[in-house]
Amino acid sequence: MAETPAETFRDLVEVNLTGTFNCLQAASAEMRLQRAGSIVVITSVNALRPLPSQAVYSATKAALESLVRSLAVDLAAEGVRVNAIAPGAIATAMNPGLLNDAYMAASIPIGRVGMPADLVGPTLFLLSDASAYVTGATLVVDGGLLNVRHTAGET
Fold this sequence. Notes:
Elements: H1 6-34, E1 37-42, H2 45-48, H3 55-76, E2 80-87, H4 102-107, H5 120-127, E3 138-141, H6 145-148
Parallel strand pairs: 1-2, 2-3
Helix pairs in contact: 1-3
């Protein structure tokens, strides 16, 4: 974190936290009027177990976790549910090398890096009536990575 430029910090906060906050405000306003709705926010397993090399990214995702839980309480009586999905290693345009990272794939209990399609079912579940009694929760979608990943000094 000591080497993170202030501009990078501001950019991550602006995109990950402020951008999501703005979307949550707009979506929740509509849903409150309808007295129904479901919101799913994408966080990261880094919010739950941060990597030292990604302190600022992890902090913004942890802030989203807190925002989800707070908003879930605030909106529950108005029929609006708010939950999060915390993906692990998902091969996207932001990290194109993941598909060729044999070490990463071997470190994931399910034996492979995730694909964007792996997030579809969990998202649909949280948006559907099948999760009508779920709010303020985070669904980890990481192939079991969080169960084995350790931070520095952890055994």
